[in-house]
Amino acid sequence: MAENPFKKDDFKKAIKSRSIWIGSIVAVLIAISPYLFYTYQYFPNTPTYDTFLFSIESTYYESVNTMMWMLMGKLIPLILLILWFFTCKHWWYHIILIPVAMYAFQIFSLIESDIKNIDEIEIYWLIPIMMFITPFVYFIRVKLFDKHVLGIDLDAMDQELKELKAKQKASEDKNMPKAV
Where are the transmembrane segments (predicted)? Predict the structure, then answer.
């Protein structure tokens, strides 16, 4: 019989190595986040900025530097929140999606030059998201609380109910008069 070329220890080492790489990338992103924020200083204090790749025009702020300052002030927390969402192991991590959505809406309104009320109307866009996420997270919390704090296991309760119904049916079948 041929040996399995993929040994369990090799698989565990590969997973651990991958985990170390991902953790290192996350740590580096968190460490350089202040430097990423201050990249706005490299943009000119003029209404337009032209490069060979793209052109940025700031009509509302009248300065590309100010626009990039606002953008970085929203983009860096958004990136950090997304990293937190994907690396969080707590039961409530879905709640992190609410500030993620808020920052995403703020970035959209910042980029969209026709919108004049930045950081004012995004809360109304968040209401449908909150109406979905909050009950979902509360449902998870109730299930965990019932199981781990109160010791209520719904699967075990269902099994007990099935057994009780089976016993009731068996006793009813015994007590039923037989047809002659």
Answer: 20-38, 67-86, 91-111, 123-140
